[in-house]
Amino acid sequence: MSEPFVLGWEEWAAFPGLGLPAIKAKVDTGARTSALHAVSIEPFGPVDKPQVRFIMHPVPDRPEVEVTCAAPAVDRREVTSSNGETELRWVIEARVKIGEREWPIEVTLTNRETMQYRMLLGRAAILDDMVVSPTTSCAQGELGYELYKDFPRRKPVKRPLRIAILTREPKNYSSQRLKEAAEAKGHVAEMINTARCTMAINALSPAVFYDGRKLPRYDAVIPRIGASLTDYGMAVLRQFEMTGAYILNSAPAIGASRDKLYAHQVLARAGIGMPTTAFAHSPKDTKNLISHVGGAPLVVKLLESTQGKGVVLAETAKAAESVIDAFRGLEANFIVQEFVKEAAGEDIRALVVGGKVVAAMKRKAQAGEFRSNLHRGGEAMRVKLTKEERATALRAAKAMGLAVAGVDLLRSDTGPKVLEVNSSPGLEGIEKTSGKDVAGLLIDHIEAHVRTMTGPPRRRARSRKAQAARAEAGAGPAGEAGRDAAE
């Protein structure tokens, strides 16, 4: 019986077919999938035999060393990383060489510039006659980055992004501000009318067409999808995601926020305060609906309502029964909510971007009106959020899965209550009231996720003493897993 082929917890690997003579790889049996660092990933070639072109920076601290690689694409696959984020990745097949052994493996392509290793070797790539020694480093010998000394150098540059703004209203304030903010940072922003998009659904070569013309690959898509086109808009978004674009707010998150009943269930499950809400299908339950929210006055709200339309205040039980019966006669879906009287016709819009509240405003209804929406004549003014209000807004956006959200809050006697979480918040009122460049902050968030700068990875320096201590504590293959692997 032959000796097993021993792999250390880290190894030097080469990909001869990709033109990569040396890559430092983390060997992790806790991760199923192998991953290779790649940026500027772009599919090309025929639909039935697609290929992928990408740029690799093999030396972690020398971004000027740049290798352009290409390989046949064998799949698109969703991979969940150790921090719980799911990413749709291209999968290629390539021959890896470690020591004197060379064999084909499937490897996913993803940006690993913040990781210590440019490659992760998962257990699916480890053959039956191989064993991993968790205490051995580079069991198959050393290579070195000096193998790249004759490779061309390229000064790190900030790459302009191609951004699609998905909207049917290209001339409104929000769309124009997003375009201006993107172009001010050197990017290209294009307005795409959602309704004019068609899709060619294919596992390896997904495409979006616009008036019959195939759209190019976008780095990011900003969805500004109207409520009347939610379902189709979400399908278009999913298709853009299939092409590899970063989606500012995902289709599932938008769908959840637009379904007011489901949104309240999500918020309730997360333990977030909101007005008591009731829903029923049977006309026999009208009185029960009213009692569930504490009686009149109460608010009756269409599930598809936007900008305050389809929202009615019923001040008496008799009026509530009449409104509910009228909505049922129209076969409309609606919810009944507690009326928070102490809010006095005021609410707060907190705008969340990337897990931070970046701006806020207070909206006050005009005289004789309880709806504070600016589209209904409400007045906007500056406001200072309390710590509890800020925390509630962040929790609500996170519960809905939204990177960008307008969270509407009421100030009640029992603390802040979430009225609604908007996945396409308007920018005009909150920018003019707060004085904040919200559009610019949205573009900053996109840049951070698409990583437009090809440069050294930004990570905290670690002393040799600290590294030795981690090694003694068994931080070989497992100690790094929380930060660098487990995909």
UniProtKB/TrEMBL annotation:
ATP binds at K301, E338, F339, D347, R371, S372, N373. Keywords: ATP-binding, Ligase, Magnesium, Manganese, Metal-binding, Nucleotide-binding, Protein biosynthesis, Ribonucleoprotein, Ribosomal protein. Mn(2+) 1 binds at D408, E420. Residues 453-487 are annotated as: Disordered. Its cofactor is Mn(2+); Mg(2+). InterPro entries: Asp_endopeptidase, ATP-grasp, ATP-grasp_RimK-type, ATP_grasp_subdomain_1, Peptidase_aspartic_dom_sf, RimK, Rimk_N, Rp_bS6_RimK/Lys_biosynth_LsyX. This is Probable alpha-L-glutamate ligase. It comes from Marinicauda algicola. Mg(2+) 1 binds at D408, E420. It is an enzyme of class 6 (ligase).
